[in-house]
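To the wet lab folks,

You asked to see what we're planning to order before we commit. Fair enough. Below is the target structure as C-alpha cells, and below that is the sequence we designed to fit it. If anything looks off to you, flag it before the synthesis order goes out.
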C-alpha cells in the first residue's frame, strides 16, 4: 500500500471516529491532527460525502456531519410456534457484515439475550427487529407488543411505581422467572454496548458506556410494549470478557454490582427515609461487593444513612458496601452513621 493511500485511510478512519465521538469542527480536528490545511481536510470530508459515508448539513463554516445509513434491514416475527432467539441471530448476523470477532461476540450476546426476553417474558404476539449500519456504528432495535417490562417488574415485585422497577432492574439479578433466568442479560447488555436504551409505556431507561455508572429515567412518549435499543461502534476494542470481569469474581460468579442511588428519588423528594433506603438495598444480599453510586444526589437524611451504612451493613457483614461519587454533605451523613 502506498504511503499516500495509507495516510488517506488513516484520515478517513480518524474522521469516522471523530464523527462518532465529537462531531463539531471536524475539519479543524483533521487539520490539527494531521498537520494539513483546512482546505485539504474539507476535501477528505467532501469525498466521504460523495461516497455516501457521511451526510452534511449547514453552510461551510457551520457544516455538521453525521453518518449516512450504509445498510438497513427489518423483519417482524410472530412470537410462539417454536420461534427461538438463535433463528433471529442467524437471519440478522449476515446483515452486520464484516466486523471484528469481539464486536460480533457482543452483538451475538446482546441480540440473543434481548430476544429471548421477548420470547419468554413479553406475552406479546409480534416482535419487530430493525437494523441500521453506518461507517461508525451499528444499531439494533427490538420492539414487542407485549406487557411492558417495567409494568411487569412492578407487578412481580409489588412496587409502588414503574420508576421503582428501573432501580430494581439496574442492580442486576432481577428476573420474574427465576427458575429459567438469572436476570443477568439486561445488566450485562446495558454495560457492554456504547448506548443502551429501554422505552416502555412512558418510562425511558438508559446507560452509556463512556459515562460513569449513571442511569437516566424520565417520562417519554412510548407505545405499549417494550422497545430495546443497542448501539455499538464497529471498531470497538471492547470485549465481553472485559465487561464480565468487572462484575464477576474468580469463580466467574456475578458478585459485584453498582447501584444508582438517585433512582430512589421520586419527583422532588430527597433521600431521607428508611423506606427509601430499604428500596435501594432490596436484593443486594445476592452480591458480595456493592458500590452505591451517589452521583446526582446532593444530600441524604440521617435515617437513610443510618439504615444503609449502620443497620444494613451490620446485618450483612458478608457484603463489601462502599459509596462512590459522594458529595461533601453525603460524606458527612455517612460518617455520622458509621461513627462509634
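Sequence we intend to order:
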Amino acid at each position: 500500500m502506498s504511503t499516500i493511500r495509507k495516510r488517506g485511510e488513516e484520515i478517513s478512519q480518524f474522521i469516522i471516529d471523530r464523527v462518532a465521538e465529537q462531531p463539531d469542527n471536524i475539519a479543524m480536528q483533521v487539520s490539527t491532527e494531521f498537520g494539513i490545511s483546512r482546505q485539504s481536510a474539507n476535501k477528505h470530508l467532501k469525498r466521504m460525502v460523495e461516497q455516501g459515508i457521511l451526510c452534511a448539513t449547514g453552510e461551510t463554516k457551520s457544516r455538521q456531519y453525521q453518518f449516512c445509513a450504509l445498510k438497513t434491514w427489518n423483519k417482524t416475527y410472530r412470537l410462539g410456534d417454536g420461534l427461538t432467539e438463535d433463528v433471529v441471530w442467524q437471519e440478522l448476523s449476515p446483515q452486520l457484515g464484516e466486523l471484528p470477532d469481539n464486536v460480533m461476540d457482543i452483538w451475538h450476546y446482546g441480540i440473543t439475550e434481548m430476544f429471548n426476553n421477548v420470547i419468554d417474558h413479553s406475552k406479546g404476539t409480534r416482535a419487530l427487529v430493525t437494523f441500521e449500519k453506518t461507517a461508525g456504528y451499528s444499531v439494533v432495535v427490538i420492539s414487542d407488543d407485549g406487557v411492558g417490562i417495567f409494568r411487569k417488574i412492578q407487578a412481580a415485585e409489588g412496587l409502588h411505581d414503574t420508576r421503582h422497577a428501573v432501580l430494581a432492574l439496574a442492580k442486576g439479578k432481577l428476573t420474574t422467572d427465576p427458575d429459567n433466568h438469572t436476570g443477568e442479560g439486561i445488566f450485562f447488555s446495558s454495560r457492554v454496548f456504547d448506548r443502551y436504551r429501554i422505552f416502555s409505556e412512558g418510562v425511558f431507561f438508559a446507560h452509556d458506556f463512556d459515562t460513569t455508572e449513571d442511569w437516566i429515567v424520565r417520562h417519554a412518549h412510548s407505545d405499549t410494549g417494550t422497545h430495546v435499543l443497542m448501539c455499538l461502534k464497529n471498531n470497538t476494542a471492547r470485549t465481553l470478557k472485559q465487561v464480565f470481569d468487572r462484575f464477576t469474581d474468580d469463580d466467574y460468579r456475578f458478585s459485584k454490582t453498582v447501584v444508582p442511588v438517585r433512582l430512589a428519588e421520586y419527583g422532588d423528594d430527597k433521600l431521607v427515609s428508611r423506606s427509601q433506603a430499604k428500596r435501594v438495598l432490596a436484593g443486594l444480599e445476592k452480591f458480595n461487593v456493592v458500590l452505591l453510586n451517589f452521583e446526582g444526589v446532593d444530600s441524604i437524611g440521617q435515617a437513610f444513612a443510618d439504615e444503609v451504612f449502620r443497620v444494613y451493613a451490620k446485618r450483612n457483614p458478608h457484603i463489601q458496601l462502599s459509596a462512590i461519587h459522594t458529595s461533601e454533605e453525603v460524606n458527612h451523613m455517612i460518617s455520622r452513621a458509621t461513627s462509634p
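Structural context that might help your review: The CA atoms of residues 121 and 176 lie 8 Å apart. The two ends are 70 Å apart (CA to CA).

Thanks,
Computational group
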